[in-house]
Design a protein that fits this description.
This protein folds into three domains: 54 residues, no CATH class; 94 residues, Nucleic acid-binding proteins (OB fold (Dihydrolipoamide Acetyltransferase, E2P)); 248 residues, 4-Layer Sandwich (Purple Acid Phosphatase, chain A, domain 2). The strands form three sheets. Strands 3, 9, 10, 11, 12, 13, 14, 15, 16, 17 and 18 form an eleven-stranded mixed beta sheet that branches. A five-stranded mixed barrel has the order 4-5-6-8-7. Strands 1-2 form a two-stranded parallel ribbon. It is of the alpha/beta class. The chain has eleven helices and 18 strands. The protein binds fe (ii) ion (2 copies).
Length: 470
């Protein structure tokens, strides 16, 4: 397999620079003649070889999209679609569905053999081979290498990632229960697989986000926490005044933690100004009623809300919707919503708590970096059995499919925006100032910020309401 430096210098020898996407594509193809063919087909005068120069990497979206509702349509996570939790057997079909669907995303890039077939012949000790598996355990060895146990429907295999190999940084981020592909060779005794390449389901390099064909803007917010004594009332009022005047904005998306809830953490009652859960929701209903009725308001729950914690979380039940305006659309967590054809995947973000602890260098200060890790895994909550409860079902609703234009999360109370392979990642901050718990944890939130998403350009802008002059 060619290493990155080799690829870059092969191009450089012909006075060409090469973009990281093209380097990744060449490595995945593992075709020795590919570089020469790309160089031969690159038009004269090109300085940087980008995906646009390669026919196989042509952007796949054609710019048209069938819209049942030209404005706002819930594509996944519509009310009452979450299955109720049945018995333990469901986990078997849940994980099988996860394995099968995530494997499909990798099949164009590697040709996997079943694990059972690996050990049946001696040829894979000599010749490179690929397989796909779900990670059952992952640990560091005494030498600082990574030992991962992988499982498919036919068997299990121990896989060693050597720290001196290129791409080891990605191996260090392997999480339990994620589905990965590996290429490498089998040990002489057939007990260990030496990996030299790690492949993830990932966003295709050819992904081209859809853009609305007409003007339209949405405001994205999260974590309002009504009922808490740290809810920022004045800032919210300024937000309402601003939003009322912005006639170009047609949608408001709220990504969970609508209210602070009751009994969510020890001693919470001392920090509540509204101690009744119904009253908390009623207050939010009054606040949303003050907004212009041209807005379509999409509301999904979070871990402070009244519904079950296990994901997918059902929509807020009708009993808590008293006094809400008619223009509210109640969805589950997660939910995929189409705004003028632009698909926004809303996910509250409970799994940040798990992923931040396991990915080297990850921090609450940069939720957008973790969102990129979700996209690479095509999964919103890869690891099972930690702080993110997952309700099993026949299908895994936490798989990221189709690829959205925008991934919207909340939960960490810190605004963050980044783009990865065409997908715009937005963490929408909070409307609550620093809580006693956050002070203890040294977490500094970015409260009272709203993110405006332009559906035509797919550009996002942060508007700050913390200061009166905003
Ligand atoms: Fe929150
Ligand atoms: Fe939360």
């Amino acid at each position: 397999m060619l290493c990155e430096d080799e690829i870059v210098s092969r191009f450089f020898a012909t006075r060409l620079f090469v973009s990281p996407e093209v380097v990744a594509y060449i490595r995945e193809q593992d075709d020795p003649g590919l570089i020469d063919r790309i160089i031969a087909e690159t038009p004269r005068g090109t300085v940087v070889v980008s995906p646009a120069c390669i026919p196989a990497l042509k952007k796949v979206r054609d710019g048209t999209r069938f819209l049942a509702d030209p404005t706002c349509e819930v594509l996944q996570g519509m009310e009452n679609s979450a299955e109720s939790i049945r018995d333990f057997e469901e986990y078997v079909s849940y994980f099988r569905n996860r394995f099968t669907r995530l494997s499909t995303f990798m099949r164009g890039r590697i040709q996997p053999v079943p694990i059972e077939a690996l050990v049946r012949t001696g040829r894979y000790q000599e010749e490179a081979v690929s397989f796909i598996g779900m990670v059952s355990t992952v640990r560091s060895t005494a030498n600082g290498n990574k030992m991962v146990e992988m499982e498919d429907t036919t068997g299990t295999m121990r896989v060693l990632f050597n720290k001196s190999r290129e791409g080891f940084a990605e191996a260090e981020k392997i999480l339990p229960d994620e589905v990965i592909g590996v290429r490498g060779k089998l040990s002489q005794d057939g007990n260990i697989f030496f990996a030299d390449t790690l492949v993830r389901p990932d966003i295709p390099l050819s992904n081209a986000p859809y853009r609305s064909d007409r003007p339209g803007r949405a405001v994205l917010i999260s974590d309002i926490h009504i009922g808490s004594n740290t809810f920022l009332e004045d800032e919210w009022r300024r937000f309402v005044d601003w939003l009322s005047a912005r006639e170009d904005i047609g949608y408001l998306l709220i990504a969970g933690d609508l209210v602070d809830g009751i009994g969510i953490y020890p001693g919470q009652d001392k920090e509540l100004v509204i101690k009744n859960i119904y009253r908390q929701y009623e207050t939010l209903g009054e606040m949303l009623s003050a907004l212009p009725d041209r807005l379509k308001i999409v509301i999904s729950p979070g871990n402070h809300d009244v519904v079950r914690g296990a994901e997918p979380q059902p929509a807020i039940p009708p009993a808590f919707r008293n006094g809400y305006p008619e223009n509210c659309i109640w969805v589950e967590n997660p939910a995929l919503v189409s705004l003028q054809g632009v698909r926004v995947l809303m996910y509250h973000g409970r799994s940040f708590d798990d992923m931040i602890g396991m990915i080297p260098g990850a921090s609450y200060r940069h939720p957008e970096e973790i969102m990129e890790e979700m996209l690479k895994r095509r999964h919103l909550a890869p690891t099972f059995g930690l702080r993110t409860p997952i309700a099993p079902g026949k299908k895994d609703p936490l798989i990221i499919d189709p690829v959205p234009e925008v991934l919207l999360t909340g939960h960490v109370h810190i605004t963050g925006i980044k783009r990865y392979r065409g997908v715009l990642m937005i963490n929408a901050g909070t409307w609550q100032s620093q809580t006693a718990f956050q002070k203890q944890m040294n977490t500094v939130p970015t409260p009272a910020q709203a993110v405006v998403l332009d559906l035509q350009s797919l550009e996002a802008e942060i508007v700050d309401f913390l200061k009166p002059e905003a």
